Every structure is written in C-alpha cells, then in structure tokens.
Amino acid sequence: MKTTYIDKVEAFLQKISSRPELNAFITLDAEGAREQAAALDASNSGGEFALEGMVISVKDNIAVAGLPITGGTPSLRHFRATQDAATVRRLRDAGAIILGKANMHELAVGITSNNAGFGAVGNAHAPACIPGGSSGGTAAAIAAGFVDAGLGTDTGGSSRIPAALNGIAGFRPTTGRYSSDGILRISNTRDTIGPMANTVADVVRLDNVMSGDGDGSVQPEKLAGLRVGVPRATFYDNLDPPVAAAMDNALQALRDAGVKLIEADLPDVFELNEKVGFPVVLYEIIRLVPEWLAANDAGITFAALLDGVASPDVKGILGSAVNEPIPEEVYRAALDTHRPALQQAYREYFREHNVEAIIFPTTPLVARPIATSDEMVVINGTEIPTFPAYIRNTDPASNAGIPGLSLPAGKSPEGLPVGLEIDGPAGSDRRLLSIGLAIERIV
Question: Mean pLDDT across the stretch 54-64?
Fold first, then answer.
C-alpha cells in the first residue's frame, strides 16, 4: 500500500510524542499539518513541486500565518501572525508541510536554548545537554527525526552552532540572500534565516526555493585540487579534545581526497570582530523589537515585553542595552569602519591564498549539560563564559556577511556531535554548498 503524506505526518507526530524531554516545539500544528498533507495527497501532483511533502519546523521568531510567533518570550505567547513570512510562503508554494513552531533561546539572545519561559530544549543525542542556539528547537527536531528539515535564524551562529551540536547541516547564507520579511529580528545588519537539515542536499533544496537562485542543479564539487584555507592559529586554538580529534580526521580525509589544504591565518579577525558584533546588535535590538511590536499590532509595549522576559541572561543583556545604550558614534564606527575592515580581511584572505573556502571547527567544544551551562563552561580544565565560548568561530563570518555551512564531522566518545564549518567569499553560496556536498560524502 502506498505511503501517503498524511502517513508521514502521523509518523512524525508519533515520534514527537515519544520524546517529550526534547521540548523542541513551542507550538505543534498537528491539524494544520494534516490538512496540508491531505491536500498534497489529493492533488496527485506526482512530485511536481520542488519540496513536495518535505515536513519542516519553523523557528518561533519567523511568522507562520495563524500560528503564534512568540520569539520565545512569554509575553507574546498569545500573539498570532496574520500572514506567512516571505520565505515560509515560498516553502508552502513549493509543497512543504509546516508542522509547527520550534522552541528557541528567548528572543534569540543566546546559544543554550535554555528558555526559562517555555522550558529548555534538549540535545537530540543527549537530552540533558544543550542543543545550541538560538535555533536549538529546530536543530533538535531535525536530528531527532521529528521533521525533514527546518528554518532557524542566524545572527552570530544561531543556525550553525545548534547544527554542529546536534550533528546536522546548518547554513548561513550571504547576508541578504533571503528575504527578512516576517521575522522578529534583533539585528537588521546581521540577521538572516538559516536553513537546516540532516543532509546538505536538503539544505540545497531549501536554498533553491528561498533564494530563487537555481534549479536544483548544484552538484558535489570535485575535491581533487580544490584549495581550502586552514586558519589554524585563528580558529583551532584551545579545542575540546573530541573536537580536535574530529578535525584532524576530517582534514586527513580531505588530504586523501586530493584537497590542497593551505595553512594560513586570518590576522586580527577577532579584534576586528569584537568592534562590530555586540555594538551592532545591542544598538539595533532596542530599535528593531519596538518597531516590530508596533508594526504588527502586538498589543504590548517594549517596556512591558522587557518586564516579561523570563530568562535571566536575556533580561540582563537587554537591560544593559537599554540602560547603558551603545553610543551612536560607536555604532557608526562599527558599521562604517570596522565592519568594512573585517570584510576586506576576508576578501584579501581568499584572494591572496587563492582558496575557495576556509575550514575550521564550528564550535571549539561539544555540548555541555543544560544544568551548568547558563553562564560558564569548562574546556581543558578552565572555566570560561558560555556565550563567547560557543560563538568564537562562527561570529566573524556573521559580521562579515559571508556564507558559512556547518557539517557533521564525527562524535565524541560519549556520542556528542562535532561540527566542522566551511566559509566562502560573499556571494559564493551555491559554490560553497557544492563544496559542502562533496565534503559531506567523505567526512
């Protein structure tokens, strides 16, 4: 008997009910998904749609018509979107089925997805550990087999970090590749939707539809002779032993496949990045969120929203942004001086070393326990702040606006996934995905 799309949806719903400890969804739209599946079954389209029957989760800061868009904060629990975000509309038109809204770090301001308002998200491979964030629910749902793929958002690593910690593929496109319509953003300079899936091939399918750039013809790149930069002193410092081991294995596999690994560092990248990242986000968030509340008639003021923030780390960051605002001149310097310098550093790196991508660990460490990781984590015997520990390697590309793709690269002895990232020049999205398809086959 032929399996229907309704059968597929029911199987996913059963999986979700069997693993409540992951807490991957804020809103599960079972009836809506059944209706979408039934419509596809009745259409007898024969697979004519690009994403026909692909079941996806959508991070809860992206609008889905008729469903809540909470941004992971309790004050918006009853606010519903009246129309789909532009990217969601494209996915629907391509035959995708929306199963629900994924849990996340509150207001996307963090990387643990330990949400005090809607509950912590568990890692798909170890529910007592963090899934990464802020798109933790999307990544956990995909890795646990609750959906085929999903949408996160990425400011400083919020799609790639949870992809790495859950052992799936996560993509940050060149900034501006996808529409930002219908997103509760925290930075207009840095935010982008980030597609996530178990395979790079499915990320490519999502990218084709959301960008309108291509017919699905992205093929695995030939690795023999491909030049890839290895900025070892920049991104390989103080790695968790399982991460270091996985990267050594991955690099050797690439050498064996004929890839030319060019050992060359990115000088001053962290210093430049520090002058861009937080000044831009903290300046923009306290303007964008009030604008979004007003434009969408959310029925709540920004002050009331702040009062209702449940997660202590988020309340602290937002309180600091409001009470000690980033000066206009610091923000302008970040945008007009330091960000262009960071972008130029990347352009020069790709050009001078004649490399098509750079490769490094997505995160310097694997997932840590939820219970102890809100503020600090231990790596190689030293306690360091959680947030900068996990975004260290992903943040610079975010601020430069260049594309990055995180891929599974193995697991620790305890079964915790390790991710490797490849970044490419601005606008090289399809080329980077082509390289990712090839690397995925051998790593």
Answer: 98
Integer Cα distance of 79 and 26 in angstroms: 13
Integer Cα distance of 308 and 77 in angstroms: 11
Q: Which residues belong to the active site?
A: 59, 134, 158
Distance (Å, rounded) from C-alpha 155 to C-alpha 61?
Answer: 13
CB 421 within 8 A of CB 410: no
Tokens of 138: 């999307």
Contact status, residue 349 vs residue 402, Cβ threshold 8 Å: no
Task: State the architecture of 5-442 in CATH terms.
Answer: Alpha-Beta Complex (3.90)
Q: What are the sequence ranges of the domains in the chain? A: 5-442
Q: Indicate the helix (H) or strand (E) that contains 119.
A: strand 119-120
Please answer whether residues 397 and 430 qualify as being in contact, where contact means their C-beta atoms are separated by less than 8 angstroms.
no
Find out whether 164 and 362 touch, Cβ atoms under 8 Å.
yes
- pTM for this one? 0.98
- Interval 67-100: pLDDT, tens: 999 999 999 999 999 999 999 999 999 999 999 9
